[in-house]
Amino acid sequence: MNVSSPAFTEFRHSLANLAGNPQETGMSDDERLARARSTFIAKLNRRTAVDMETCIHCGMCAEACHFYIATEDERYTPAYKIDPLRRFYRREVSPLRLLYRPITRKMDLDELKEWSELVYEACTGCGRCDMMCPMGINISEGINIMREGLAAAGLVPDELNALQAEQRQSNSLFGVGAAELKAVAAELAQHGTMLPLDKESADILVLTTAVEVRLFPEAIAACAKVMEKSGADWTISTEAFEASNLGLITGDKTALRAAFKRVSAKAKEIGAATVIVPESGHAYQALRWESANALGEELAFEVLAISEYIARTIKAGSLKLKPATEIKSVTYHDPCRLGRQGGVFDEPREALQAMGLDLRETASNRRENLCCGGGCGEYAISHGAPIRQKAFELKKHELDDTQADAVVTGCNNCRINLMIGAEETGWDMPVVSLVETVASNLAE
Amino acid sequence: MTLLDFARGPALQWSLIILVTGIIWRIVGALLLSSRKDLSVARRKSGLNDGLGAIATRSLPAHTFEKRIRFQHVTGYAWHLALFVTVLFFGPHILFFESLLGFSWPALPNGIVLFSAAVALAILIALLIRRANHPVQKLISNADDYISVILCILPLLTGILAFAHIGGRYETLLAIHLLSIEALFIWFPFGKLMHSAMTFPARFQAGTSFGRKGIKA
Ligand code: SF4
Ligand code: SF4
């Protein structure tokens, strides 16, 4: 897949059209505000309270945020993005609320509307600011709460709303449902890769994403090759294949739970002990770290990112790789939600090294890695394009400085955003997927 | 009752009562809020090590982001350090602590203490000016940010004046110095100065919550 392929052009068109059908919420202003308030109250617990109490307004977090670094627009300061939440906390929840009330203003809807731009368009939830804050404040969690409050108030950007409505109403995304997955499976079968769809029982349930079905079927084929080669008993379910969870992105908890339930029920039904998340950072963070809490119970299965599975089977000796020949040197882009928010740093690197690749780290990497600028639904929001492009330029510089032959990443959304950036700027470093690289270098 | 008697007597007592009650109220109030068990399966067990690790490492100046925040880091360290030296190692301060605690420790020469007080004062003034002018800080600052800095500046300023006998009778200068500290005590629990206590639980929880995901906070 490259930027000149018709599928990519068509995908970009569909992104541009997402905002075309705004969803009406039918809520009155008072209702919106009440829903945002009750969401904030429900989410402000001991942990967030400690964070809200501790900010010293030093502004250092701005220096970690790619949107601030790239634009120097002070409104993109992470602490500012959660300012309404902090003020709400002080006035309504904090131990000193009775003192603050007479001297502070009530939260209003205009303020929330204003912040919608800051928390959706100007934040990818990458968590880099969390690593910078000298007080140890989890700012990205505050931004998640802001998103939840805004989602409850019906203030999600139209593009994300459209995607979420599609997932809720027809269990599909970007027009990809069971039929489209089956069509891709038939096409892959013609090229010799069989997808074991809808097995009644399997040890491993493998997920994919609509984006892979539409744009990167090679990634699905690569995943199949890896699973087969490692001798796994696995399946993909046409009823519950979607790993993406718009609920995590928009902050809509009902949507979040519904998507988790589908996967969790299917895993139980087929007796899968493991669920594998494809190359999607937010899907990993959602299923691995958020789902049990959203469902209110521990998961009955283990969640692995495909890169974790690859590293594990390499170690166990069931997956053998040969030295890569097409490319010699690579740099690895840590997807924020797989790495900094998910804890998967070593496994992709181990896989790359198992293919004898010369791994060149970017100046910032692992927990300090710079975001590609397009995560967390950001690349779908058309209004955010200018700042996203600026943030991409920062990333591009770091990648170029490595002088590697290609950049490997473990997230489709990073891949798309880097490809969009490449198309806009004529950048020519190949952007490749980890699982595809692994699948092309399986030892016989 | 002279101004000095007032400053040494009821003003000191009441400001200490407000300081201690306020701190306890605010910490306990935040920690009493509900908390939920994380139901996701931890990548590794996290606990004391991660928590204390985050407390220690968030205080270390050298990290990847350093070059973008050097000014704030250096001034931040310098002013806190200079403040500690001034508060804890000035002879008359030690006598005061001894009267409260019943034990004492050696003082540093006055010249060194005066120098550190001047450094702390100069940095605070610079930081105040920066706050009012730097676009990021200007945008995110509220009254608390300014009041807190000014209330830290005043004891340093009045202390130096009292030490140097500039601007009035020594007793009056001393009384003003004490009153400025008491104003700081009274304000302390209500504003951001509380970070000096809250930073420990905040960093600790960052350490453990990232730690259970296998990430060094
Ligand atoms: S770095 Fe932390 S303490 Fe400083 S302004 Fe940002 S959130 Fe607040
Ligand atoms: S999470 Fe990332 S994008 Fe969002 S404010 Fe923090 S650094 Fe910026």
Please give the structural blueprint:
The complex is a heterodimer of chains A (444) and B (217).
Chain A: H1 6-17, H2 29-43, H3 46-54, H4 66-71, H5 78-81, H6 83-93, H7 97-100, H8 109-121, H9 128-132, H10 139-152, H11 158-170, H12 178-190, E1 204-206, H13 210-214, H14 217-229, E2 234-235, H15 246-250, H16 253-270, E3 274-277, H17 281-295, E4 302-305, H18 306-316, E5 329-333, H19 346-354, E6 358-359, H20 385-401, E7 406-409, H21 412-425, E8 431-433, H22 434-439
Parallel strand pairs in A: 1-2, 1-3, 3-4, 5-6, 5-7, 7-8
Helix pairs in contact in A: 2-10, 8-10, 16-17, 18-19, 20-21
Chain B: H1 3-8, H2 10-31, H3 48-57, H4 66-89, H5 91-101, H6 110-133, H7 135-140, H8 143-164, H9 170-187, H10 195-211
Helix pairs in contact in B: 2-9, 3-10, 4-6, 6-8, 8-9
Bound molecules: iron/sulfur cluster (SF4) (2 copies).
One iron/sulfur cluster binds at residues 55-61, 78-79, 133, 135, 137, 139 of chain A.
General form of chain A? globular
Q: Give the helix proportion of chain B (percent range).
A: over 70%
Report the count of strand segments of chain A: 8
Question: Would you list the SSEs of chain B in sequence order as H and E?
Answer: HHHHHHHHHH
Query: Would you tell me the structural class of the helices and strands of chain B?
Result: mainly alpha
Helix percent of chain A reads 40-55%
Oligomer: heterodimer
Amino- and carboxy-terminal Cα gap of chain A: 25 Å
- The radius of gyration over CA of chain B amounts to 20 Å
Shape of chain B: globular
Distance separating the two termini of chain B: 54 Å
Low-confidence stretches of chain B: none
Point out poorly predicted stretches of chain A: none
Global mean pLDDT of chain B = 94
So what's the CATH class of the domain at 6-14 and 176-314 in chain A? Mainly Alpha
> Mind telling me which CATH architecture of the domain at 6-14 and 176-314 in chain A this is?
Up-down Bundle
What's the number of domains of chain B?
A: 1
Largest sheet data of chain A? 4 strands, parallel
